[in-house]
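Good morning,

Both structures are done.
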Amino acid sequence: MPVLCSLHTRALFPLVVALLTSACGGSAAAGKGLSTATEASDRPVLEPYKIVFAMRGHERDFRVCFMKSPHQRGMARVVFEVDAEGVVTRSDLDESTIGKNEVDSCLLQQTEALRFGSLRQPVRGSWTFVFRLAEPLSDKERAELLSKAEEEDADENAEQDEPSVVVESSSPGRLDVHQIEETIEVGFPLFARCYRDALNRRDRKGGSVKFRLAIDSEGRVESLSDAGSKMSDPLAVDCIAEGFYAMNFPAPRGGPVSATYRLELD
């Protein structure tokens, strides 16, 4: 079972740059209202780590968008174009399950305010925002969870942890477990950022995230749902889920694949 520990900022972001550049190129839809399909496809894809860097320090601005309808939950995928000066010139909503125009409009506005610095050429980008994927644990639930975990660690005869990755046998396609694990491991530094921020907000260690992934035939995360995450800070779950949406898995053989993934945080 992968265990993710908190990392210091200086150690974290060089890893994000090195790892996400090499194996997490992301994928952006052309988007309605953007450049023509041919023009958009000619532009290189903006790497996820550059999007994370641009959003750093502005996370609260994006979260405020969801506060315009705090009882809603879901995801919103924004696609955008950036010129060579690093300015967002166009943005659009590719998909949203939030169902509130004021939330979607706010996310677009905040995306257009991002600055990416000087680039070699115009690029296209995509980011999926997630809100309230999982409900937070109460103090009592969290205490019971930690107590149970300690008892299992102390018991030499405790059963083995469930595997970190389980591919559903009913999936039309096939994707090796180790390929899923290797792709997700690339995102560990990004997940550590989410966890570190959660510790700064609540100073409560421990927990786990467990997601059900629907990976399409091209290796992109088509949808993601909570499958029993146990975190005291729900924003950390949302943040890690956004990192999953930025990943590109190897293309499954024979069609889409559904899988669950569990990550322990300590």
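Second structure follows.
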Amino acid sequence: MARALVSTYSVAACDLEAGQWGVATQSKFLAVGSVVPWAEPHVGAVATQAYANPRYGPEGLTLMREGFSAEEVVERLTSADEGRSHRQLGVVDSAGRGASFTGEECLEWAGGKTGPGYAAQGNILVSSDTVDAIANTFERSEGKPLVERLLDCLDAAQAAGGDRRGQQSAALLVVERDGGYAKLSDTVVELRVEDHELPLEELRRLYGLHEAIFSETPREQWLTVDDALAAELRERLAKLGYDGELEHAFNRWAGNVNLEERVDGVEQVDPVVLEELREVS
């Protein structure tokens, strides 16, 4: 059986109203995102860590897909695992029920806390304050987007002490049915910081880039392209080497800078796209 010492803190959580499930984690471990986080829309989310059993991820999702609750999933996974005393596991199911498991041989401080919509856990922590900070932050941030709640949970956990060995990597995963790229993917956001002195700061930076490229500005905030703005667009695009008919030139430039998801013709323009064009030209 695979054994990887993923001593870390994490939160598995959901936003039932938004139809989103996700996991956020940080660890003094290389590429924590390759082991800990697992999620599937309208099924659940799983965080597997300590002497992690990576099979807990796909097997846990399969069990929830079959209708088992978070508590039942934890019981079934751990009872069938001879290494369970070294495992740590957090699960949130399709109904938002949370369950957390910490094996008795996990290294101190180790433990978890659950509540509506979340399961928080960690091991080799400075103290229980880290898990308490995750739980408190999640409970007090109801109404905010799930992604932001998860990032806030990580920051609060680190501020409360975090992994007593320090920091190295972090990961964020949020899923929603058809909520990702081009509405053809279930992955709303999946970001990983593999090896960094300040992984949570780097994760925030990457999320900012993700939002700039993939998020949506409400259509009522888009700007009408009148004659003056059309002339400005042509001039700026020409400076960058995009000549010809405006819509074709605009689409080519947007595609080359990965902003095509924010473009829909040239009758209106997303202010985020316009700002980027102005900055580079």
